[in-house]
Design brief:
Blueprint lengths: L14 E6 L12 E8 L1 H5 L6 E5 L3 E8 L2 E7 L6 H14 L21 E2 L5 E2 L2 E2 L9 E4 L8 H4 L2 E2 L4 E7 L7 E7 L7 E6 L17 E5 L13 H10 L7 E5 L5 E5 L19 E3 L14 H6 L5 E2 L10
Parallel strand pairs: 12-17
Antiparallel strand pairs: 1-2, 3-15, 4-5, 4-13, 5-9, 6-9, 7-8, 10-11, 11-12, 13-14, 15-16, 17-18
Enzyme class: ligase
Cofactor: Mn(2+); Mg(2+)
Keywords: ATP-binding, Ligase, Nucleotide-binding, RNA repair
């Protein structure tokens, strides 16, 4: 498989965008929305997006695997944001200048406190040793997922630090149309970014698990490829999302050869999400959690639950259920 790019920064739209003063389809209480125009983003053209690898954009929360306390650890996305006073000053500047260029941040006083373990994402710019925010005033970063942190309990459910493994959902080596659930050593995932999806993430658009028996997985970014993707053209992409069985996805992320990432989301094109069953949740799935089965003594543990289903094949991913 070709080399894939990790998701450390906000991915720009493959098209040039504009802001419309109307209620957002994506975020409640947001009275504007960002929509795509028909013009291609110059960054996408420069990166030769027509030759890029098109992959499915999954609807979850971004994670990262890197070293913490001397061993591979799962990290959750946490952006450092401005405090109320700085946010007010920033918006006032934007309104008066019709741009955020030239705005000066105070690194010591303008931002909310983040945990001491927080690290900035790759390629975040620094000035005098301080990480600088992006154009929205946010500094993307990561915090390690500790088992005793209830805020990240669903992240914790997919990792076992005692055996150094993570629950991964990936295409089967035998048949790429089939998804497999596997326990993968965290060491094999070092420096990758992944998407956490499941019952308690982003409204569960894939219909996974239940309130009584939640189901969560990690999916490495770029591993769910889109076969025969449409050309990178506004009207053809919109038609593909609306009419193609393969178009029942949240969006597309293109991995360009030079490391550039660009995306398009259904909301960019004025389309709903979710909108019925997704292509991803309709895929066949097989459970292959067996490499460290003997380590799992807690019957409520997600690893134990999946290891009990070892070898089971489900006609649809969303049909995976644990026995009561």
């Amino acid at each position: 498989m070709r080399s894939l790019c990790s998701v450390q920064q906000k991915i720009p739209c493959v098209f040039l965008t504009e802001v419309k003063e109307e209620e957002s389809r994506k975020r409640a209480c947001q009275q504007y929305q960002v929509v795509a125009t028909e013009g291609l983003n110059p960054a996408a053209l420069q990166a030769d997006v027509d030759c890029a690898l098109a992959t499915e954009k999954l609807d979850g929360t971004c994670c990262y695997v890197t070293v913490y306390k001397g061993r591979p650890y799962l990290w959750a996305r946490l952006d450092r944001k401005p405090n109320k006073q700085a946010e007010k000053r920033f918006k006032k500047y934007q309104h008066s200048h019709r741009s955020c260029e030239g705005f000066k941040w105070n690194a010591d006083n303008d931002f909310k406190t983040v945990p001491e373990t927080w690290i900035p994402a790759h390629r975040v710019r620094h000035h005098n040793g301080h990480p600088l925010p992006d154009e929205h005033g946010h500094t993307p970063g990561w915090v390690p997922v500790e088992k005793d942190n209830k805020q990240y309990c669903w992240h914790s459910s997919v990792v076992d630090y005692e055996v150094g493994a993570a629950l991964i959902l990936r295409p089967s080596a035998e048949d790429e149309d089939v998804l497999e659930v596997a326990a993968v050593p965290l060491a094999e995932l070092l420096e990758q970014t992944l998407e956490l999806i499941g019952t308690n993430v982003n409204g569960n658009p894939y219909g996974l698990g239940s309130k009584k028996h939640p189901v969560h997985f990690l999916v490495s970014h770029g591993t769910i490829q889109i076969r025969n993707p449409p050309p990178v053209d506004f009207q053809q992409l919109r038609s593909w999302f609306q009419g193609s069985p393969e178009g029942r996805v949240e969006g597309i992320v293109w991995h360009c050869a030079d490391g550039t990432l660009v995306k398009v989301h259904r909301h960019h094109l004025g389309l709903r999400w979710p909108d019925g069953d997704s292509c991803f949740s309709d895929r066949m799935a097989v459970v292959c959690v067996d490499s460290v089965t003997g380590e799992y003594a807690d019957l409520q543990d997600l690893f134990s639950s999946f290891s009990a289903l070892k070898g089971r094949c489900f006609s649809r991913l969303q049909d995976i259920r644990f026995d009561p």
